[in-house]
Amino acid sequence: TVSYFEWVQNINGYYWTLDEVHQKLDQKMTKAFWDVMDAMEKYKVEPRTAAYIVAVKRVADAVKIRGWA
Prior knowledge:
This protein has one domain (2-65). With 69 residues, it is mainly α. 81% of the residues lie in helices and 0% in strands.
């Protein structure tokens, strides 16, 4: 995720302080955690399966947004 932040900074000419990067990383990781926890509860599965469910849903959403399906 931090590599992605570095890429975004480079292509857009942004500069983020270390604290800003840590804050953005914390937000991403916290959201990812709760997305997996929600999937665990909704589908009554273990964390690994819930993480796969979240990942596949994100890919499916991206495909729909791009009009590929």
